[in-house]
Amino acid sequence: MSKNKPIFITHNPLGDTVTCYSGPWYGHIVASGKHKELSSEREKVKSTVETPDKIFVSSESSDRRVYFKPKSLNSSLYIKVVTMIVGSNQEEVVTAFTTKKISGGIANEIYHK
């Protein structure tokens, strides 16, 4: 994964450090319309990692975690953030996008608010 500069560094409720690098942010998340609905929502993506409603292990890869949080108080949409475990208590954001429900690529729940 191309890293470049950190967009944000934060911690999840499990005590892990989570970093979002400019490579995935600009090269995938907000690039060429893939998930451009989040282009001005960096703080909401960060908040999803810091205070998620739920965190799951990915059903597609055991070294990935999937975070969900409502986009806003009255929203029917969730922000979904997928991270990859890259070391002891270290994760990196792989992708983020909005979704209508808590589903897709999730296995065991490891955290809930």
Describe it.
The chain has helices at residues 22-29, 42-50, and strands at residues 6-11, 17-21, 54-58, 64-70, 78-87, 90-99, 106-112. The protein is of the alpha+beta class and 113 residues long. It has one domain (6-112). The chain has a seven-stranded mixed sheet with strand order 1-2-6-5-4-3-7. A hairpin with a 5-residue loop joins strand 3 and strand 4 (64-70). The termini are far apart.
Structure described in brief:
With 113 residues, this protein is α+β, with helices and mostly antiparallel strands. It has helices at 22-29, 42-50, and strands at residues 6-11, 17-21, 54-58, 64-70, 78-87, 90-99, 106-112.
Which labels suit this protein?
113 residues; alpha+beta; seven-stranded mixed β-sheet; 15% helix; globular
